[in-house]
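Hypothesis: this fold can be encoded by more than one sequence.
Test: take the structure tokens below, design a sequence, compare later.
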């Protein structure tokens, strides 16, 4: 499986921090600089779902502020 590439390499640290925060919120422990291949699909999905939820909330809040 191909590893996804970040379009803006300078954003990697922010994305990693965002992922760690989302994992913490759903109760999944991630190795910050190590191997996380032992996560279950449910755990990985929980992290991704939490990240999407936060991004949608952020977008909704930004468009509410522009009206």
């Amino acid at each position: 499986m191909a590893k996804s590439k970040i379009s803006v390499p300078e954003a990697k640290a922010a994305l990693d921090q965002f992922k760690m925060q989302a994992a913490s919120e759903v109760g999944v422990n991630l190795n910050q600089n190590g191997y996380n291949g032992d996560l279950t699909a449910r755990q990985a999905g929980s992290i991704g779902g939490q990240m999407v939820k936060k991004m949608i909330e952020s977008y909704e809040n930004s468009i509410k502020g522009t009206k």
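The radius of gyration is 14 Å. The CA atoms of residues 11 and 17 lie 10 Å apart.
Hypothesis status: open.
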